[in-house]
Amino acid sequence: MFTPIADRFGRPLRSLRLSVTDRCNLRCQYCMPETDYAWLPRDTLLSFEEITAITAGFASLGVDRVRITGGEPLLRRGLPTLISQLAGLRAIQDLALTTNGVLLADQAAALRRAGLQRITVSLDTLDRARFVALSRFDEHAAVLAGIDAAARAGFDSLKIDTVVMRGTNDDELTDLIEYGRSVAAEVRFIEYMDVGGATRWNRSTVVSQQEMLATIAARYGPVTAVGGRGSAPADRFALPDGTTFGIIASTTQPFCADCDRSRLTADGVWLMCLYAQAGTDLRRPLRAGASREELVELIRAVWSQRADRGAEERLTLDRRGSLIPLAALKKDAHLEMHTRGG
Ligand code: SAM
To answer: Model pTM greater than 0.90?
Structure first.
């Protein structure tokens, strides 16, 4: 049983993204383009028990969907142990993970056995040289092997997420759909977002949902919208043969009105929005001995005051560049996308 709560726009608290590390084994140009970063101090990282206790608190207020993210979550040692602890929370109906896939071939079966239901692998290109240029690591073959392993592990769903950037991979949309078909994965194209960390972002590099649909329709024929997105970030579409794909149009068609998501960083800072400038520290009260009821009260109080609609506000700007200046990012790791999780 839970007591549902709503924010100032009536949005419920349903979905929680848990970042389990701020470290990553890739350096994608749209997320971590710099040469060095400020990292979260190790002793501030929440233990698995702390993450599970906080998640249980959220569950008592209505959270029933959890996604593990990062940084690169598979870098967190012993991750299947956390998955099984979270899978043991009865209120959590949907347990998913987003990974870059580099370490997935070795871990897919164990994650599935631990109770992970769904998995999303980020893959921006089918071309090895492009992958190396974009991510600055020669790990393309490892990611493809990870996707194969995930396909064999029998997850309830396998998705592939692709950030589309003009002049980088916007000529691969249909090839990626074909690849997705071959591994029984639904592909979702993400518009390049001006989040913290995307210091090279500029409007002209964004390929809009509208443009993507035109490219896909030119190859396959009429594309139809598949209704019922609900609070999910992706608009879904079907090709004439029934193959489905998604587009996350956060940059040109934000969906703040339906957003029931919030995020917890690996050190316990709770963020209401990917574009938020600051969050609420849940680690300090937890480590200072706050009871479960006190934590739940804090979460309830903060959510009921939530009025964030970050992506919609960005859309109203005449001049839109990167969200946070590099100097500020260097001072506070919490402003980075790789700390917040995608
Ligand atoms: N390391 C994992 C991964 O690669 O999936 C999880 C964390 S990553 C921050 C989560 C997602 O955010 C990835 O799909 C990534 O492509 C996406 N992402 C990062 N920066 C982005 C940006 N500027 N615009 C759109 N998506 C972005």
So the answer is: yes
